[in-house]
Each structure stands twice: as structure tokens, then as C-alpha cells.
From TrEMBL:
Pfam families: Bac_globin. Keywords: Heme, Iron, Metal-binding, Transport. It comes from the Bacteria. This is Globin. Belongs to the truncated hemoglobin family. Group II subfamily. Signal peptide: none annotated.
Length: 132
């Protein structure tokens, strides 16, 4: 394996997508889609700004950037944080669909988009807590 391939593999998703600027763009493209979605919109507060900021902190950390979420809020414990909300398989699918649309809208390379979505599938379905 060449040195270039080695260094490419060692790069985090956070670095591969362009760091904090791109994570911000993802969050800003994602939440209007979520708010407009009939299954997801009702789960979120009208003032979406605090949610967007937490998502920015979490995705930065989740994609291999600085541990911003943990520094501010402690261990993510995302399943526990989502338990008060009815997360159905359909809502997990919708969340991933909105994320895919946001990634497409901001021009993330298709191969990189697939990597990001694969990485997000685990947590999205892990949060499912009801079939209703």
C-alpha cells in the first residue's frame, strides 16, 4: 500500500468532508428538511437553534473531529437522550432520508455521502424505541 493510500485511510470522516465548515453546512441543510417532515417535525421544538448546535457538536465528534459534544455535555448517551421521544423505524428511515437529502443538497461527493450514511445508520436504528 502506498503512503498516500495509508494517509487517506487514516483521515477521519470529519477531515474528509472538510471539517467544521461542512458539518455546519450539513446541520443547516438538514434541519429545515426535518422541520418540514410530517413524521419528524412534531418531535422538534419551534426554536430549533439549540438542537442544531447540539447536532453540530455531536456530528463533529461522531465523524472523528474534536470531542465537542462530550466536552460540553459529557458522554453522548444518545439512546437515553432520545428515549422520551417515540422513535419508530419509519422515523429512523425519515431521519436518514432527510440527512441524505441534506448531504446531496450541499454537494457531498456520492461515495463520501454513502460512507456518512452508513456510519449514521447504526445510531439511527439504535434509537428506535417503539413500533407504533
Amino acid at each position: 500500500m502506498s503512503d498516500q493510500q495509508n494517509s487517506q485511510q487514516e483521515r477521519t470522516l470529519f477531515e474528509m468532508i472538510g471539517g467544521e465548515t461542512t458539518v455546519r453546512r450539513i446541520v443547516e441543510a438538514f434541519y429545515p428538511l426535518v422541520q418540514a417532515h410530517q413524521l419528524l417535525g412534531p418531535l422538534f421544538p419551534e426554536n430549533i437553534e439549540p438542537v442544531m448546535e447540539k447536532q453540530y457538536l455531536f456530528l463533529t465528534q461522531f465523524f472523528g473531529g474534536p470531542p465537542l459534544f462530550s466536552q460540553q455535555y459529557g458522554h453522548p448517551m444518545m439512546r437515553a437522550r432520545h428515549m422520551p421521544f417515540e422513535i419508530t423505524p419509519q422515523r429512523a428511515d425519515a431521519w436518514l432520508g432527510c440527512m441524505e437529502q441534506a448531504l446531496t443538497d450541499i454537494g457531498i461527493d456520492p461515495q463520501l455521502r454513502e460512507l456518512l450514511l452508513q456510519r449514521l445508520q447504526g445510531p439511527a436504528y439504535h434509537f428506535v424505541n417503539t413500533d407504533n
